[in-house]
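User: Reviewer 2 asked us to show a designed sequence for the structure in our supplementary figure. I'm pasting the structure tokens here. Could you produce the per-position amino acids so we can include them in the response letter?
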């Protein structure tokens, strides 16, 4: 298959960030009377072949960080606007937490009100239990003292949503080419990007938009950006030689039961549930102690996955990190994809929360889910421009829900003005000490 040897806008990666940028940029060009065929999206495999194709698909605004919360409110607008095309289920989202997280979640609730994002906040153990029993009559989680119920949000069917987004872009005339792997990135005498070398030949471009997902380090190295950086903390102390990239194994899986098992008391589709807890977690198999440390899970019924699907907190990949950087989905052992203890912990946590899941461990599906995520030093994305004409969208742990980033990038590319919503995610924040605040959640991205 022959591919164009030039494109005004060359987008690398056909996951959520690449596809969203392609669609919104195409729409903007068409509105200006320009041809969206100036946009070319390439991927070394195909649409949604990486992280976006196996993502859990949860869409939420539940972030302790104001910048993330504003960006997610913008993204939820887009999910809602194109719900049918994007296979989006607007069922809502719940953050269910112990006292150690009460203050953090109260802050989230307050700031959601400030930006007009609809949610309901319940405080106190008795009221929290009463609220949950009003939804699920078998609710039995212990030590819960707050519930933040976001009325917006929910989830999208992973690959179906990405195919829908790609079709929206194709409908505008955006060009796509699959099986095209980038091997090198060339610069001109001024230092700007001039072209990329691919497995199908050289492609020159005026603007390069890199949306690499877990292959972030590979492209970062092609651009000869720093492997280690200095990070200034909130106290003004500089930490030198900090690795720019850390790989984590994202823990997700599916309980192979009828998705209809998880319904609310009135038979409605339930919101996505996220439960953090410091209560001791005991095995649903034999009652033994699984952990007495802080733990967290999320789950939802999903016809796409064919059961109850969700996940738990990730863990860092400690060995063979360089190999993971080259091929994030290469290692197939449970250590890299789904930790061998994940099924036991996650299903036990489901049973801790709702009686209907007791004894369900044998129904856990064996096929791998989750994947590998490329994390930055503060676990939040880098959305920035380098070498004048290279936009780098580095994010493989928040990405799927952040469909609105592509629209903001498209606006930057066509107007030349920097987006206020993307500014907090600039690369220079590390050296400047302008970091995102951290919460007490066991999840590094919350």
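Assistant: Here is a per-position design you can include in the supplement:
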């Amino acid at each position: 298959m022959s591919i164009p040897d030039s494109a005004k806008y060359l987008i690398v990666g056909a996951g959520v960030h690449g596809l969203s940028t392609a669609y919104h940029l195409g729409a903007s060009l068409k509105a200006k009377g320009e041809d969206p065929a100036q946009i070319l999206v390439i991927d070394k495999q195909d649409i949604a072949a990486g992280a976006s194709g196996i993502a859990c698909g949860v869409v939420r605004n539940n972030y302790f960080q104001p910048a993330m919360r504003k960006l997610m409110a913008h993204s939820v607008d887009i999910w809602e606007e194109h719900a049918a095309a994007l296979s989006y289920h607007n069922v809502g989202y719940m953050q269910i937490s112990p006292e150690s997280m009460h203050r953090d979640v109260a802050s989230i609730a307050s700031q959601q009100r400030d930006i007009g994002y609809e949610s309901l906040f319940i405080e106190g153990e008795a009221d929290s239990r009463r609220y949950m029993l009003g939804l699920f009559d078998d609710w039995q989680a212990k030590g819960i003292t707050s519930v933040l119920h976001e009325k917006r949000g929910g989830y999208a069917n992973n690959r179906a949503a990405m195919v829908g987004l790609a079709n929206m872009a194709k409908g505008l005339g955006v060009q796509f080419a699959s099986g095209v792997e980038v091997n090198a990135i060339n610069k001109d005498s001024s230092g700007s990007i001039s072209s990329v070398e691919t497995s199908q030949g050289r492609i020159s471009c005026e603007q390069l938009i890199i949306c690499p997902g877990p292959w972030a380090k590979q492209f970062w190295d092609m651009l000869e950006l720093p492997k280690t950086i200095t990070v200034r903390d909130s106290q003004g102390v500089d930490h030198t030689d900090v690795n720019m990239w850390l790989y984590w194994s994202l823990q997700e899986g599916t309980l192979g039961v009828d998705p209809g098992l998880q319904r609310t008391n009135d038979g409605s589709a339930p919101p996505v549930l996220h439960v953090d807890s410091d209560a001791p977690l005991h095995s649903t198999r034999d009652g033994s102690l699984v952990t007495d440390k802080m733990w967290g899970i999320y789950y939802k019924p999903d016809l796409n996955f064919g059961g109850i699907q969700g996940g738990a907190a990730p863990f860092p990949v400690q060995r063979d990190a360089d190999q993971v950087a080259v091929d994030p989905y290469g290692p197939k052992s449970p250590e890299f994809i789904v930790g061998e203890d994940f099924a036991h912990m996650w299903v036990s946590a489901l049973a801790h929360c709702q009686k209907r899941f007791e004894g369900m461990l044998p129904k856990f599906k064996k096929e791998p889910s989750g994947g590998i995520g490329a994390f930055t030093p503060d676990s939040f994305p880098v959305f920035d421009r380098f070498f004048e004409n290279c936009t780098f969208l580095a994010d493989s742990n928040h990405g799927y829900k952040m469909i609105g980033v592509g629209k903001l990038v498209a606006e930057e590319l066509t107007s030349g003005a920097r987006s206020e919503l993307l500014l907090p995610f600039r690369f220079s924040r590390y050296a400047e000490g302008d970091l995102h605040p951290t919460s007490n959640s066991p999840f590094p991205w919350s």
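For the response letter, you might also mention the following. The mean pLDDT is 90. The longest strand covers residues 201-210.
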